[in-house]
Amino acid sequence: MAVAFVFPGQGSQYVGMGKDFYENFAVAKDIFERANEVLGFDLKKIIFEDSNELNRTVNTQPAILTVSYAIYSVIKENFPGLKPQFVAGHSLGEYSALLAANVLTFEDAVKLVRKRAEYMQGAVPEGKGGMAAIIGIPPEEVKKLCEEVDGTVEAVNFNSPIQTVVAGEAEAVKKLVRLAKSRKIKAIPLKVSVPSHSSLMREAAEKFKEELSKVPFKDAETPVVQNYDAKPHIKAEEIKENLYLQLFNPVLWVDSVKFMASQGVDTFIEVGPKNVLSKLIDQTLEGVKIINVEKVQDLEKLKGL
User: Is 12 part of the annotated catalytic residue set?
Assistant: First the structure.
């Protein structure tokens, strides 16, 4: 058996996520408390009680990181023999993967993702950016649709062979959704105003590069398959550069998953809220074991691995 740990990104958040881990495990509770201390506000209260605040990008990103890392820490403490061959995360989830690989301290990671969210939110005025999921057609066809639309709209998340997310200017995204529907293609506008991973994020990426330069990175203890190139990385400087490039380039999730499978990974463990990545992996690969751990009772699924 060869295992990969994968970590979800923005969109997986919900009020109350991680609460049972907080209440049942000292190691998880400690991570929530450390997040509050580092950020200087009560992130835990937002995660457990306040959906409006939780859905603001600047809070969503540190919240998902905190919950995912708290759950991962419980797994690490209770299943010390469960060692991944690779780690990977979707967009924001890449930072949880870096924590699992001991590239960053939790304190540095939670501050970084808060800054990342601030720059992303600030890069495009509210209501001027958008994203949509195009479902049921191959990525190449989605790219062709984008080319037919005036304005900036790009394929940015290659999530599965039948799901590609586009992002760009709000008007251009709306036009693309209308075009897709006129051809009987399923297109779902997403409830986000930040056109993540599109060329419109370049300015945010330049500011974020400054933040990255201030933070100490270590070489990874487990290879991290990064979104930017779907390849495994260990060297600290490569990892850092790819985090900068990730902001304004597509998330190559399908290629990342296929790469890990090509290296013998037959068991994917999704660590964090919801099971979005589990579904995408299921759409991409056949004959692999997929487990998601988001509740305390899910730890049972890891017994015997």
Answer: no
Strand partners, 135: 163, 186
Q: What is the pTM of this model?
A: 0.97
Q: Where are the domains of the chain?
A: 3-123+199-302, 129-189
For residue 75, what are the contacts with CB-CB under 8 A and spacing of at least 6? 82, 269, 271, 293, 299, 302
Q: How many CA atoms lie within 13 A of 240 on its CB side?
A: 19
Around Cβ 303, how many Cβ atoms within 10 Å? 8
Kindly give the residue spans of alpha helices, DSSP state H, lying in the chain. 19-24, 26-39, 43-49, 51-54, 57-78, 93-100, 106-123, 139-147, 170-182, 202-213, 236-246, 253-262, 276-284
CATH, domain 3-123+199-302, list 3.40.30.10, 3.60.10.10, 3.40.366.10, 3.30.499.10: 3.40.366.10
Active-site residue 197, yes or no?
A: yes
Per-residue pLDDT in tens (0 to 9) along the chain, 305 residues: 999 999 999 999 999 999 999 999 999 999 999 999 999 999 999 999 999 999 999 999 999 999 999 999 999 999 999 999 999 999 999 999 999 999 999 999 999 999 999 999 999 988 899 999 999 999 999 999 999 999 999 999 999 999 999 999 999 999 999 999 999 999 999 988 899 999 999 999 999 999 999 999 999 999 999 999 999 999 999 999 999 999 999 999 999 999 999 999 999 999 999 999 999 999 999 999 999 999 999 999 999 89
Determine which one of 197, 198, 233, 256 is catalytic.
197
On whether the CB atoms of residues 119 and 204 are closer than 8 A, the answer is: yes
Q: Which of 68, 91, 196, 198 is catalytic?
A: 91
Q: Return the CATH architecture of domain 129-189.
A: 2-Layer Sandwich (3.30)
Which tokens is 102 given?
Answer: 């001991």
**Of 203, 206, 247, which Cα lies nearest the Cα of 94?**
247
